[in-house]
Design brief:
342 residues; alpha/beta; Rossmann fold; 2 domains; 7-stranded mixed sheet; 6-stranded mixed sheet; 13 strands
């Protein structure tokens, strides 16, 4: 079972980058300077959340030829720095301007009020209410439920793990769905769960070493499948799982297909997908066509906004796991199963 996601390209790091765009910009009614994209903690190259957003940026640029600019976060930055970054993009004429991650909510709310003719997007937050803002959110718990079903079916020890990057309500949704999905397979399954940090500023989403240490502890405790929702820190989880020859489940992007994780892909069972790239692309398309999205736009299993990646041939060979995940998806779509968010 798959979800339609924007394919990720190899992404490097840097403070900002620009795309030259193409000739289509002058052929329509679009009058902006291009796409403005401000990355979350961990930046471009995380092979997960930020790179998914960049893939949507690339697809939209290629299709509409409008160009754009994407800007990296800085270590230890303040809320004022985020406001300045979003303001900078809006003042320069980029449209839409998209904050990648809930941490941009205060900045988007403040700046959107000053630029009513610009469309803003905020990913993973639905608290910003304005006519020119699209809240791009997802049923992460549904994808995580499928990850839990896969983990429980694949585990030979009846002992699995969850590692969240930061102890916040958004990541609690990932854990809740995962636990519920796993227990739907085996009510007695043992689940290790931990969060790397209390706040994002402590590096929970940007520290592969923290992910590696947490995975090592869980493997020592006996788990044989680990699901992470930890951004860049998840690379440490995956590398440690592969080194100890236990299954890892990725998040947001199809991490089996990520170049930076190629050495570990044989141990990536699958990934709980969140179509961030598709959300970015759809928002850009709506602005380009003169019909900007606004309000809450939520991705779910029903609309392919979330899903479970099945790229690993080893996963495909596990027919009982595949069948269980497929059935779980259909049960959620049909309303037979409601997934917990807490």
């Amino acid at each position: 079972m798959t979800v339609a996601v924007v394919a990720l390209a190899a992404a490097g790091c840097g403070e900002s980058s620009k795309s030259a765009g193409g000739d289509d910009k002058e052929s329509g009614t679009y009058s902006g300077k291009g796409i403005g994209l401000a990355y979350d903690i961990g930046g471009k190259g995380d092979q997960s959340f930020n790179d998914a957003a960049y893939a949507g940026f690339q697809k939209a640029d290629k299709e509409f030829g409008i160009g754009g600019r994407d800007i990296e976060p800085q270590d230890g930055e303040s809320d004022a720095d985020k406001v300045q970054r979003i303001t900078q993009l809006a003042q320069a004429g980029y449209n839409p301007v998209i904050g990648v991650g809930y941490i941009y909510a205060p900045a988007v709310e403040e700046v959107a009020a000053k630029f009513p003719d610009t469309t803003f997007g905020i990913i993973d937050d639905e608290t910003v209410k304005a006519d020119n803002v699209a809240d791009l959110v997802f049923h992460e718990e549904q994808a995580s439920y499928l990850a839990g079903v896969a983990a429980a079916k694949a585990s030979k020890k009846g002992h699995i793990g969850f590692i969240g990057g930061v102890d916040i309500p958004l990541i609690h949704k990932f854990e809740a769905g995962y636990v519920q999905g796993a227990k739907s397979v085996d009510p007695k399954i043992e689940i290790e769960s931990q969060y790397l940090t209390e706040t994002a500023q402590e590096g929970g989403f940007s520290s592969p070493d923290k992910g590696k240490d947490a995975a090592s502890g869980q493997i020592e405790a006996g788990v044989d499948v680990i699901y992470h929702a930890a951004g860049l820190s998840g690379q440490g989880v995956i590398s440690e799982a592969a080194g100890k020859k236990v299954w890892a489940i990725g998040v947001d992007s199809d991490q089996y297909r990520q170049t930076a994780l190629a050495a570990y892909k044989d141990y990536i069972l699958g990934s709980a997908l969140k179509n961030v790239g598709g959300a970015v692309y759809d928002l850009v398309k709506s602005v380009y066509e003169g019909k900007p999205l606004n309000g809450v736009v939520r991705g779910s299993l029903e609309n392919d906004g979330v899903g479970f990646a099945d790229s690993n041939p080893k996963y495909q060979a596990m027919k009982d796991v595949v069948a269980a995940v497929d059935k779980a998806k259909q049960d959620i779509v049909d309303g037979k199963v409601t997934v917990n968010t807490k």
